[in-house]
Amino acid sequence: MNKQITVKLIRSTIACTEKQKATIKGLGLRKINNSRTLENTPAVRGMIKSMIQWLEIVK
Prior knowledge:
The chain is of the alpha+beta class and 59 residues long. The chain has a single domain, classed as CATH 3.30.1390.20. A three-stranded antiparallel β-sheet has the order 2-1-3, with no helix packed on it. The longest helix has 9 residues. The chain is globular and about 30 Å long.
């Protein structure tokens, strides 16, 4: 299993709830097309899973 995951924000957070915006911010993403490489932990995977419609996993 990879030790890191790269995610990219593909949708605007304008239509998100405050909880969803906090999750995006917790992943370290700010603007559309911003990408971030994160550690592959259960907590990060859970955050990605809850926001999968706003994110793209880059390989």
